[in-house]
């Protein structure tokens, strides 16, 4: 059983003031550098939580592995972000993403997706190549603007099966227009309905993990 630290400063936010980047014509991304006061200690505590394949507890197209993170670990983070969500308790899903090049996938999950959530938070607890990539699908930035038929066409690409993750930067329908790079202790906050995907270059993280905390809601 994981036991939370008796030192509350490990969970404190160092920088609650983001820089704003215009992600597209309709949405912005907030970028918080040096986000936590003690990111190394925070990572150590998170690392003690058991990890499972991403689809172990419920069906998902996410690749790799994840840990289910409970409220105690992100309470202060949720409070800081409430300044932008308008709600003190906005988190509906909380977990880590644990990725590496050619990780196992239960579908072709390198294709971009949208979270069907207004708010997505990602805190990098690793360094390395790649990051979070944002895409348009046939000129559309967001899943909110599409009909059910169009969405069915998009997610039909995520064919179920046993695959290894592939580097993806676009094709005839998808165009990558922004890559927010990995930087240790950087947090990013954006509209989860914008099309995005983990960008994991081939051959990266062979001896380490691409590790981040993800909070979603709204």
Total of helices: 3
Q: Which term fits the overall shape?
A: globular
> According to CATH, what is the class?
Mainly Beta
User: What count of structural domains?
Assistant: 1
CATH architecture: Sandwich
Helix % is 10-25%
Query: What order do the strands of the largest sheet run in, or round the barrel if closed?
Result: 1-2-11-7-13-5
Q: What is the N-to-C order of secondary-structure elements (H for helix, E for strand)?
A: EEHEEHEEEEHEEEEE
Written description of the protein model:
With 218 residues, the chain is of the alpha+beta class. The protein has a single domain (31-217), classed as Sandwich (Jelly Rolls). It contains three helices and 13 strands; from the N terminus they run ββαββαββββαβββββ. Strands 1-2-11-7-13-5 form a six-stranded antiparallel β-sheet. A three-stranded antiparallel β-sheet has the order 10-8-12, with no helix packed on it. The protein is globular, with a radius of gyration of 17 Å.
Essential attributes:
single chain, 218 residues, alpha+beta, Jelly Rolls, six-stranded antiparallel beta sheet, three-stranded antiparallel beta sheet, 3 helices, 13 strands, 33% strand, globular
